[in-house]
Amino acid sequence: MLASAESTFPVDLAIIPPSTIMSTALRRSVFNIARTARVVAAPNRTTTLVRSAFVYKSYSAAAGLSREDVQTRVLDVLKSFEKVDPSKITTAAKFTDDLGLDSLDAVEAVMAIEEEFSIEIPDAEADEITTVQQAIDYIVNTPEAH
């Protein structure tokens, strides 16, 4: 992050909770906007590179999640969505057809699952996850999931 002797940008990135920034693309966008705004607001000031203020979870070893644990947590994440009828949630349920989510809601569901398991699913792979079972299978086969 670029910093100057006097901050002229109205939002300090250090105060944004990491949980509100869900994707790498969003983090990059926030970073670039902040950097551009500071440089534009103070073009004649000397700037220095400072370490990013984003906090990441780290673990000492793989959690070794069982399929049952993953299934329970994925179902719980989906139950937290207001638009989803909890009685319709099964492992075979499709996000759009069975749970009644539109495409944006389905993306939000996958993002919530990413957050629950502290992983980032690449966009191309996330687009392929259209059922609860596919989400469970992806998490089970991802060693970084916790």
UniProtKB/TrEMBL annotation:
InterPro entries: ACP, ACP-like_sf, PP-bd_ACP, Ppantetheine_attach_site. It is found in: Mitochondrion. SUPFAM superfamilies: ACP-like. Residues 68-143 form the Carrier domain. The keyword Signal does not apply. One of its GO terms (molecular function) is acyl carrier activity. This is Acyl carrier protein. It comes from Ceratobasidium theobromae.
